[in-house]
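Translate structure to sequence.
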């Protein structure tokens, strides 16, 4: 598992999430537990691509919102691309409040 110590930071158009835990299992793939991302409350499809700047980072998109998730293991991302998705479990006050499959959309 990976623990990140900071929360989120905002750039001009992309929010960076640095606090999360990741778990990879051969049978279920990559699962990421992270704080609730309010930007994604509007619903709709959530998808990810590998960052062109770093193969350990992903860009998560929903409508016109983007979030950057940094420092994942490349082999886990490669497996996620092959599977076509990552599972996100978002939390608020230590409770899981949303479970979302995040589909892969090639760069």
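Result:
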């Amino acid at each position: 598992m990976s623990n990140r110590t900071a929360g989120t930071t905002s750039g001009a158009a992309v929010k960076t999430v640095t606090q999360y835990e990741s778990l990879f299992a051969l049978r279920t793939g990559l699962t990421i537990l992270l704080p609730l991302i309010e930007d994604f409350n509007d619903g709709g499809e959530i998808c990810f691509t590998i960052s062109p700047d770093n193969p350990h980072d992903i860009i998560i998109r929903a409508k016109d919102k983007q979030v950057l998730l940094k420092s994942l293991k490349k082999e886990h991302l490669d497996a996620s691309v092959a599977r076509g998705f990552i599972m996100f479990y978002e939390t608020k006050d230590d409770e899981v409040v949303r479970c979302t499959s995040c589909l892969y959309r090639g760069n």
